Amino acid sequence: MSTLEIKDLHVSVETKEGPKPILRGVDLTINSGETHAIMGPNGSGKSTLAYSIAGHPKYDITSGEVYLDGENVLEMSVDERARAGLFLAMQYPVEVPGVSVANFLRTAKTAIDGQAPALRHWVKEVNGAMDNLRMDKSFAERSVNEGFSGGEKKRHEILQLELLKPKIAILDETDSGLDVDALRVVSEGVNRAKETTGAGFLLITHYTRILRYIKPDFVHVFVNGRVAEEGGPELAERLEAEGYDRFLSAATA
Ligand code: ADP
Ligand code: MG
Ligand code: MG
Question: Is residue 135 situated within a structural domain?
Fold first, then answer.
């Protein structure tokens, strides 16, 4: 059983005009086995939250705390965060020319486990996970993210998720740019990872579409750098019907 605790997190981003406050006191607790959806309008700070937890240098934590099983995440290097069991797709470089998907996955697995996986078993596991995601075997030989389509990037993300078996996974806009078939395959991958790893999930999304395939236990509406409302899956349905207007007018009032 693992817990990610975000406490009163305030974050500023570096801009040319100086630091700009984006997150204004975020409180969130995610336990193993739970799926949380963060939904909110564009520019509300959802990606900032993900980048901050990932340890992106551009995001300055001005106050607040983040703990994974009582360990201070904000004091960890990006690598240490991954080893501690946090999965944040955006912590990986956008393109890694010359490094194949197969080598990348094996290196990541070795770094996280502290030892190389047994080869036979590992090859089986990779092939199985790729089959599940309906990925062609030749994909493993391609350079990481080089010329990947939107759908391939997302599948690669879920492939990592299935193989690296994190404790807590944060997926930012995993649904964006996917057609319905790819959305289904990617969602099935997340649901499989939920079952096989028992991880806790934070799904960040603008649209309610993916929540038809991945059922959240909790929905948090994110507006203007903080959680404006929380509820169960019914809140996502309400957002689908009503949009974010109600929250936006409340935030500026
Ligand atoms: P969301 O993911 O909800 O669309 P973001 O976290 O991407 O929101 O952005 C929140 C706000 O912070 C926006 O106003 C955006 O312009 C600003 N912002 C985020 N990252 C940067 C950055 N690197 N430089 C300047 N402004 C940024
Ligand atoms: Mg955005
Ligand atoms: Mg975003």
Answer: no
